[in-house]
Specification:
This protein is α+β, with helices and mostly antiparallel strands. It is 35% helix and 31% strand. It has a 5-stranded antiparallel sheet with strand order 7-11-10-9-8, with helices on both faces. The longest helix has 22 residues. The chain is globular. The N terminus is likely disordered.
Length: 256
């Protein structure tokens, strides 16, 4: 059944995206939600399918329960707006052999989704198979930054040092950039880190744009909000209004 409008406007924002390319345009949809585990549990009868519910009942760790529900809620909300399917229970998201999210929606085919979650935040991109994308989130105050630094080349370290950012936010940003691209390829960061080496990263009016040494056909757009770094990887020659996503997201940031 459809979720009531207020759940989409207070702690969840859904933003249709118009993607422009020299050879044609595409549509996509961005969803961001900020919900606690009890909030997600209270709504699960509205968006979890029977198989989702069975899987959820097997999860015993609260952190895993929270991330699973954040992913399903954000992912199905993005797919719902992208396809026009209002009943979220009619949208199935299941894991492929590499744990990548696979969408099944009876009313539409070739729909893809990329999902990210961090703390109480969940984000998703719904897009057509013809235009691959990926999204990732990372806390700027989390641990593991020494490990990230150890995987960067000297050239990448110099790039980050030249950004108008403190070291830890900069490391969080570069991690999300590489993770977002790895989701495009459905590998996760299981390949050699050098595969995702950056060619450049530059600050712009609305955020940061990164290019890749080995993947000239892709780029990543990044920004910060509420102590979180967020990146979207997409084809290099594609563009969309990042400021519109950031503006809509601020409706959540302003909540108590």
């Amino acid at each position: 059944m459809p979720i009531e409008d207020h759940t989409r406007t207070r702690s969840t924002v859904v933003t249709p995206i118009e993607i422009h390319r020299p050879d044609g345009n595409f549509s996509a949809c961005f969803a961001m939600t900020r919900k606690t585990l009890p909030e997600l549990v209270s709504l699960k009868h509205l968006y979890l399918s029977e198989s989702d519910s069975l899987y959820f009942e097997k999860l015993s760790v609260e952190r895993r329960q929270h991330s699973f529900l954040l992913g399903r809620y954000a992912g199905k909300t993005a797919v719902s707006t992208f396809t026009g399917e209002e009943d979220l229970q009619q949208i199935a998201i299941y894991s492929g052999v590499f744990t990548q999210p696979i969408v099944r929606c009876a009313s539409h085919s070739n729909v893809q989704v990329s999902i990210a979650h961090c703390g109480k935040w969940g984000a998703a991109l719904a897009f057509p198979e013809a235009h691959p994308m990926g999204i990732d989130l990372e806390e700027t105050s989390g641990s593991g930054h020494d490990a990230i630094m150890s995987q960067l080349t000297k050239a990448e370290q110099a790039m980050l040092a030249g950004l108008p950012l403190e070291q830890i936010p900069a490391l969080s940003l570069v991690w999300t950039v590489k993770e977002a691209l790895s989701k495009v390829f459905r590998t996760g960061l299981m390949a050699d880190p050098m595969v995702y080496e950056l060619k450049s990263i530059a600050a712009g009016q609305d955020g940061f744009e990164s290019m890749f040494k080995n993947w000239a056909q892709y780029k990543a757009l990044s920004w910060f909000f509420a102590g979180i770094a967020c990146s979207i990887a997409l084809p290099h020659r594609s563009s969309f209004d990042l400021a519109r996503i950031i503006d809509s997201q601020n409706r959540i940031n302003d909540l108590p």
